[in-house]
Structure formats: C-alpha cells, structure tokens
Amino acid sequence: MNNWSAPQRPNAYAEHSLRTAILDGTFPPGSTLPGERTLAVELGVTRPTLRVALQRLARDGWLTVRQGKATVVNNFWQDGGLNVLSGLVHHGEHLPPDFVTHLLEVRLNLAPAYTRAAVTNAPAEVCALLDEALRLNASPESYAAYDWRLHRRLTILSGNHIYTLIINGFSDLYEQLARVYFTSSTARDRSRRFYVALAAAAAEQNGELAEQVSRAAMLESIDSWQQVNPWKK
After folding, report:
1. Does the residue 124 lie in any domain?
2. Domain limits for position 49
3. What is the CA radius of gyration of the chain?
4. Closest by CA position to 104, among listed 195, 222, 21
5. Contacts of 72-76 spanning 24+ positions with Cβ under 8 A
6. Does 233 fall in a domain?
7. Where does the pLDDT of residue 5 fall: very low under 50, low under 70, confident under 90, or very high at 90 and above?
8. For 120, which of 66, 143, 194, 207 could close a Cys bridge (C-beta 3.0–4.6 Å)?
9. Angle (nearest 5°) at CA 81 between 233 and 116
C-alpha cells in the first residue's frame, strides 16, 4: 500500500500523452492530429474526454483547434503561454539542455528590479521574511519552498503586480526544479549568503545595494545550475 498512488484522470492522461507525442516528434509542429474518433481510440479515452484535453492544450498554445478542420500542432516555443512551462516540467527527458539556464536568465533580468523595489517600499517586511532563512534546515525541499516564497513575496512587496503574475506562471515549475537545484550544497551555501547579504541591505533600507546583491546571486545561480543540470548532454 505504501507504493499506491491515485490513478491519473482520463483527461489528464490524454493531455500528458499528447504533450509527449508532440515533444517526441510523433506529432511535430505544423502537423495535424488524427480525427477525434481515431485519436480517442488510440488513447483509450472517450471523445468528450479527448475534447477536454484538446481544449486545454489549445488554451496553453500547444494546438490550434478549429471547428470542422483538422487540429494543428503549434510551435509551442513561439505560440505557447506560461502554462507551457508547467507542462514541460513533467517531460524532463524532452527538455533541451539549456532550458533551465534560459529560465534563470529571465530571472536575472527580473529579480534585481523587483528586489530593489521591495526593499525600497517595505524594508521591514523584507527583513522579517529573510529572518526565516536563519531557521532553514539543510534539505533541498526546505530551500526550494523558502526560495519560492521569498521571490514571490518580493514581487508582491515591489508594488508591481505584473512581476507577481509572471512569477505565478512558474509556480508548478519553480519548486520542482528548485528541489533539483538545491541538491547541491554549493547552491545552498550560495543562497544562504544571498539571504544574509540581502537582509543587510534591507536593514540599511538600501534598495540599490539590494539590487546589486540580487544580480550577483542570480548570476551565481546560473553557474550552480550548470553543476547539477540533470538534462545536460
């Protein structure tokens, strides 16, 4: 019973199977899917269940569904939304080796700005948040959960809600990848130093210093990921 897990819902199974077929080249970008009747039989689901999966994939940008016409597979890198990222995390074997590096480069461009704004707007709240870092245990799970909470809260304290909407788009992805990232003791040590340095900047109410500290830490995170990247070739 310890190995028991809840069965996957049929629409989730169909959605996952279709994403896999897109990623492994069975249905490459620009191709069309088989008709609903054929595809439902191949997947072993009902046509209503298949339609739910197709609509979800179309919503996220994997597919273009047109009534009365064949469903087209999109170039999801160009046509997809943030939900594509959440879907990709379940297909690590198909991720390009530089996928997470590119994500970290995006964070490098965002985090210094929202960190500076948060420290400028609410230094006391930032200090209180960073005080929690002193009580973290050394597990990757603890670091992953805390790091997500820290960055999300910094976006909220920045006063720019667009930052929060963007980072919320990474919610499913962030902690799963962060647990891999924080298996490295070097990554945990670097993050611990980042938390301490950022706390000092917040205590000084120095937004400019907080921005510099964040940028340096984000650059280090890219280097740390290269050491643990499970998908590198």
Report:
1. yes
2. 10-77
3. 21
4. 222
5. 72/30, 72/31, 72/32, 72/33, 73/22, 73/27, 73/28, 73/29, 73/30, 73/31, 73/32, 73/33, 74/29, 75/29, 75/30, 76/22, 76/29
6. no
7. very low
8. 207
9. 85
Mean pLDDT taken over the chain:
90
Q: ∠ CA(146), CA(113), CA(224), 5° rounding?
A: 50
Tokens read off for 164: 């929060």
- Residue 1 pLDDT more than 50? no
Angle at 49 between CA 44 and CA 51, to 5 degrees: 115
pLDDT of residue 6: 41
Q: Are both 101 and 19 inside the same structural domain?
A: no
Cβ neighbourhood burial of 121 (10 Å; 0-12, 13-18, 19+) = middle
How far apart, in whole angstroms, are the C-alpha atoms of residue 28 and residue 7?
28
Residue type, 193: R
Amino acid at 126: V
Q: Is pLDDT above 50 for 161?
A: yes
Asked whether the predicted pLDDT for residue 194 surpasses 90, the reply is yes
